[in-house]
Specification:
Length: 257
């Protein structure tokens, strides 16, 4: 009898552990999710320090490189070993202000240096397929949370006269592909201007045409934002401000739906 009782006790402990793990996994699932795509300024290149690498809210989650939900903190992305502060975390913070009980999941999928040409189905960049991997990760995230929108920041690699001329057409195709492959024909899409500190200014005028040519889309300004000294990447403070602007634009789109 003692052996049977001990066996039952062990089984109960094991089952309790399993249920506890499941409960923890359920507790860390998001209610709504957002796809973050583009190149380095979406991935984040702002300098990391002790303050901006802290967890800001247990209600902000990120899909890590192993496709597991974890509490979000900078750096969100892992495209390069020097990924830093980007707009994603401050975006989620501002979105949370509207609903303290909500859990937001971020799906980091940006690739530093990627031109818009590699954001097409099957296209390869640095031994990865940015578009295909973004779709795959988004679908994984959608198993636990509702996909509410896409944040896009890209254009530095296409900020040239000839490439800017065809950028809008390529972006229209990209949005159409994303909405088709994610089975969400009216999915909100928010794009951001590249830094106005860039020497050339071919791409921003084109980016600012997006909301006129793509339904349920918006553009956020980079006015007043500063670089980290390289005339290419936003510094940490500016990346945070940009994220807040993304949230304002996204909220306006969501209220329309």
């Amino acid at each position: 009898m003692k052996i049977i009782a001990r066996f039952i006790s062990i089984v109960c402990v094991l089952l309790a552990g399993i249920f506890n793990i499941n409960a923890q996994e359920m507790d860390i699932q998001p209610d709504e999710v957002y796809l973050l795509i583009g190149q380095s300024n979406m991935a984040g290149r702002g300098v990391l320090d002790e303050k901006n690498t802290q967890v800001v809210s247990e209600n902000i989650l990120m899909l890590d490189k192993d496709n597991k939900w974890v509490i979000a903190k900078n750096p969100l992305h892992f495209d390069k070993e020097f990924a830093g502060v980007g707009p994603g975390l401050s975006f989620a913070q501002k979105m949370l202000k509207n609903d303290k009980k909500n859990k937001i999941g971020l799906i980091p999928c940006a690739w530093g240096g990627s031109p818009i040409n590699v954001w097409m189905p099957g296209a390869v960049y640095l031994n990865h397929k940015p578009y295909d991997e973004a779709i795959e990760r988004a679908k994984i995230a959608m198993q636990t949370g509702r996909l509410k929108g896409i944040l896009w920041h890209q254009g530095e690699s296409d900020n040239k006269h000839g490439q800017a001329d065809v950028y809008l057409q390529k972006l229209q195709v990209l949005v159409a592909n994303l909405r088709r492959d994610l089975n969400s024909p009216n999915l909100p899409f928010v794009a951001g201007e590249i830094g106005r500190f860039n020497t050339d200014n071919f791409i921003n005028p084109v980016i600012n045409m997006i909301y006129k040519e793509v339904s349920n889309s918006a553009v956020v300004s980079s006015e007043g934002l500063t670089d980290k000294g390289d005339h290419l990447h936003f510094d940490s403070v500016s990346a945070d401000i940009l994220g807040q602007r993304y949230a304002e634009a996204m909220n306006k789109l969501l209220k329309k739906n």
